[in-house]
Write a structure and sequence with these properties.
Number of helices: 4
Number of strands: 6
Distance between the termini: 17 Å
Largest sheet: 6 strands, mixed
Helix content: 25-40%
């Protein structure tokens, strides 16, 4: 926290905006590390959808990252449509760069590219939303 976020360029699977952090400069970004088999991740997704709808026009961009196979991610998305960008961390390098401890893990990055909030697990969504509001 309070350090520059590691840059990344993930393989876009779904979404209307970039899955490359540099392209999202000037936006508030939530990076959601998740997996198709993760039940707590599924609990997190409706919050992310709602935030993208509510705060997207104010500059929020959400990027969901999974290191699973593209076909697995696409099958999941066919059953569970998401309103934000979803990308593939091909070799889990991004997860390593962010010291991923487990999924879900949400990383909130400010408009200047600095990590301002991290949440591990499907827990305090109010704290994540408060961090986003503060940064917007």
């Amino acid at each position: 926290i309070d350090r520059p976020a590691p840059g990344f360029a993930a393989e876009l699977v779904h979404g209307v905006y970039s899955s490359t952090l540099a392209d999202l400069s000037g936006q508030v970004v939530i990076v959601d590390f998740w997996a198709t088999w993760c039940r707590p991740c599924a609990i997190t997704m409706p919050y992310l959808n709602a935030w993208q709808t509510k705060y997207g026009p104010k500059g929020l961009r959400i990027v969901g990252l999974s290191s699973e196979q593209r076909s697995e991610i696409q099958q999941f998305l066919a059953r569970n449509p998401l309103g934000y960008t979803v990308a593939r961390d091909v070799d889990a390098q991004i997860a390593r760069d962010y010291f991923l401890l487990g999924v879900p893990m949400l990383v909130v990055i400010d408009r200047t590219g600095v990590v301002r909030h991290i949440q591990l697990g499907a827990a305090d969504f109010a704290a994540v939303e408060a961090a986003v509001i503060r940064l917007l």
